[in-house]
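Q: Sequence in, structure out?
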Amino acid sequence: MAAHIGRRLRKGAATTAVAAAAVAALSASQAPGATGEEDHGRPATAGSVAPSPDIAADGHATGDSPYYTDLPPLRSPDPSTPPSTIGTPVSRGDAEAGIPATVLDAYKRAEAELRTSKPGCNLPWQLLAAIGKVESGQARGGKVDAQGNTIGRILGPQLDGNGFALIPDTDHGAYDGNSTYDQAVGPMQFIPSTWAWAGRDGNGDGKKDPNNIYDAALAAGHYLCRYDWNLGTDQGLRTAILSYNNSQDYLNLVLTWLEFYRKGTHSVPNGTGSVPSRRSDQGTSGGTGGHTSPPTSPPPSHSGTPSAPPTTGNGGGHGSSTPKPPTTPKPPTTPTPPPSTPTTPPTNSQSVDHLADAGTAPLTTMAGHAFDAKIATRAVTKAGAGVPKVRVRFTITGDTDATFAGGETVATIATDTKGLATAPALQAGEKTGDFTVTTVIVGHRAKGVTYKATVTERAADTLTRTDDTPLTCTPGGEFAQQLQLKATYKKAAADKVAATATLIKAADDPTATDKGPYFKDADGKPVRTLTGLLTDDKGLLTLPKLYADDTTGTFLLRITTPGGGTVTVELKVTAPDTTPTPTPSGTAS
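A: Exactly. Output:
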């Protein structure tokens, strides 16, 4: 059976799905299973996972643009003898298993960041490598500079509806150089409209550039980890991959490369990796890695020039489901009608007239806290009836770092049977101020609702001392005990709350005094007002050491916090007792 499949593949498979299924049949160890825990090495067969309707209604990272269909060799090469220098002959096996050094570093850095920011996602760097291989041949064999910027743009064909999805320009040509239609951009092939909210700064240069492998890899990781998907499970992994490109053939292909990279890989010098030779929009799979003969026509250009419309296959990232013999492409005699776009709404969305607020409570919380209220929006007809099963997209904008639960600034929710869509819980960051949440129906121009939200500074409504030991000192000395306080808000520990400590003149006069106890600044000079103090994660605040000048008496130290927390503490400076000790009776002096 294996020999028969091998002969058939050498003759040329017509689709990625057929090739991927054959690879799975050849060896259970190379079957593109997700984890080996739930899937137990079962092959990924067409139809095993239906594209999620939630995903399909909201578009995909790449706009379902074309991808490379080459498959890895049947056997993983030995990674113990990688090519070491640029110019060294690289065998096809080594080139497939080896990933250009900077590109590999970007994948691993993205995995490390997501391990911290979204530990429940369990993203493996090998998944980024698999997608990077399929989307751009690892940035065209590692043609990147030391900072990870691609040498020249990597562009997919323009998405003009002619064999591909129809996505008019959304970035004014900023990323793809095309002010008429969007094109997938960069080593991970993001479309500009997705990059606008999914982009990340992966190399810390203050920019989010889809043409930088560090930025693109981190953005891809966060994109795959949204909606709290767990990529350590078979279902979570497959759902995430389909969200990147909604094609069963694409899913099978990425899983095959994922399994290949999990078996072991190594780094090769930048620029020495191999570039795949066939794309899904070419209709036939003339070149599929180590399984078939090389293509008879040159590979498609990624120079940025829009590709000609395909004449075979269905484009848009979806390969043909039935093998066909190679044919010579001919120009179509009639224009090919464009396929439905990723943003085509469900049919019942045509009856939606507008979105209406559904009783959302005021949106206010302190920095670092979750909002108690959730945004609830209702899709309704002109008559006010709720419309079910339409997709409502919630988008956060503004100069704060607030997000939805999970760390994203965009969430898309389907309305229920009553037309209601409730956004995920809002989470405030550390930046205070106002922000906006806008709502739209995906693929529909119905009027939305705009919500205003406010993030206030952290606050404490109560301050108390942690002990009641009197604070005393002698003139010119230092107080032996440092003052410690507990800050709470609504009886819960108030962490990271700012506090101010001032030596005041009197209980009814909060003006800072110019004599008595004092703190020391960084230069050792006396100061009687301290700002910028912060409670710790348990709400505790320990003040710096206090000193006394030569003035005796009782003094007041007042500590305040935003939210009304206030405590006033007495400090006593008394002269030492100089009364002579009486001599015992009868003793000579």
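The radius of gyration is 33 Å.
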